[in-house]
Design brief:
Mean pLDDT: 82
Strand order of the largest sheet: 3-2-5
Shape: rod-shaped
Number of strands: 8
Number of helices: 8
Largest sheet: 3 strands, antiparallel
Structural class: alpha+beta
Radius of gyration: 45 Å
C-alpha cells in the first residue's frame, strides 16, 4: 500500500511540476504582457517579472516598450516651387498602450512606417526648396504631428521625427553653386568699393593737411626715399613733386630779399 501511495504522490508531483513549467512566464523589464484568454483580451497588461497563465487556454503576447528607431526610405517628390528632390528621415516612437498596439492594428511598426512615408511625400509637396534646406525644424514638427495623429489610436506615441538628407539633381546643385558664387562676388565688390571710398576720404584728408603744411610733403618724400633705399636697388627713380619746388622757392624768397636790402643802402 505504501509503495502505491508513494508512486501516486510522485506522479502528482511530476504533473504539478510540468503544469507549473508550462504555466510560468517571465516578462522582462522593458516589456509588458498582454493576455488573451480563449481569444479574448483579459485583464490589464502584465507587469515585468514572473507571472502564471493557464496552459492551452491563455496566450501571453509580450510587447516591447522601448523607443524604436525606424529609418524612413528616401521619398522622391516635387516641391511647391517645382524642384525634384529625394528626402529621407528617421522616426523615433514607442508603444504606450500595448493592448491597443496588438488589437487595433495588425502590425504597428509597418503601419507607422507607411504613415511616415506618406507624410514625408506630403511634406515635400507642401514645402519650398529653401524650407527643406534651411527650415528643417519647422518641417520636423509638422511631420511629427502628421504621423502622431493616427498613431495615437494605435497605442503608439511618436517622440521625434528628423529629416536626415535632401538630395538634389546635379543641374540644381550647379545652379545653386553659381548663385552662391555670384552672391560672394557681389559682396566682394561691395567691400572693395567701400574700401576705395574710405581710402579716398583718408587721402583727401592727407592732401588737405599737406596743403596746409607744405613741410609735411617734404617729410613724406624723405620717408619714401628711406623705404626704397632699404630694398638695396642699384637704380632709384624718385618723382619730384612740383609742390616741393614751390616750397623751396618760397623758402628762398625771404633770403633773397634780405640780401638785396643792404646792397640798395
Amino acid at each position: 500500500m505504501v509503495p502505491e501511495l508513494l508512486g501516486a504522490a510522485a506522479t502528482v508531483g511530476s504533473v504539478g511540476v510540468l503544469y507549473l513549467a508550462s504555466a510560468a512566464r517571465v516578462v522582462k523589464q522593458y516589456e509588458r504582457g498582454v493576455l488573451f484568454r480563449l481569444g479574448r483580451l483579459y485583464g490589464e497588461a502584465r507587469a515585468p517579472g514572473f507571472t502564471l497563465v493557464i496552459p492551452f487556454v491563455d496566450r501571453l503576447h509580450k510587447v516591447n516598450m522601448q523607443i524604436v528607431t525606424m529609418p524612413v526610405p528616401a521619398q522622391e517628390g516635387i516641391t511647391r516651387d517645382n524642384v525634384t528632390v529625394r528626402v529621407d528621415a528617421v522616426v523615433y516612437f514607442r508603444v504606450i498602450d500595448p493592448a491597443s498596439a496588438l488589437v487595433k492594428v495588425e502590425d504597428y511598426k509597418f503601419a507607422v512606417s507607411q504613415m511616415a512615408q506618406t507624410s514625408l511625400r506630403s511634406i515635400i509637396g507642401k514645402s519650398d526648396l529653401d524650407d527643406l534646406l534651411s527650415n528643417r525644424e519647422k518641417l520636423n514638427q509638422g511631420l511629427e504631428l502628421m504621423i502622431d495623429s493616427p498613431a495615437v489610436g494605435w497605442g503608439v506615441q511618436v517622440d521625434r521625427v528628423e529629416i536626415k538628407d535632401v538630395s538634389l539633381p546635379d543641374t540644381m546643385k550647379r545652379s545653386m553653386a553659381r548663385q552662391a558664387e555670384a552672391d560672394r562676388e557681389r559682396r566682394a565688390r561691395i567691400i572693395n568699393a567701400d574700401a576705395e571710398l574710405q581710402a579716398s576720404k583718408k587721402l583727401a584728408e592727407a592732401a588737405q593737411q599737406m596743403e596746409d603744411t607744405p613741410s609735411a610733403l617734404q617729410l613724406r618724400l624723405l620717408q619714401t626715399i628711406v623705404a626704397v633705399a632699404a630694398e638695396k636697388n642699384s637704380t632709384l627713380v624718385l618723382p619730384f613733386p612740383v609742390e616741393l619746388l614751390r616750397f623751396l622757392e618760397r623758402a628762398q624768397s625771404p633770403a633773397s630779399d634780405g640780401d638785396s636790402a643792404p646792397a640798395g643802402g
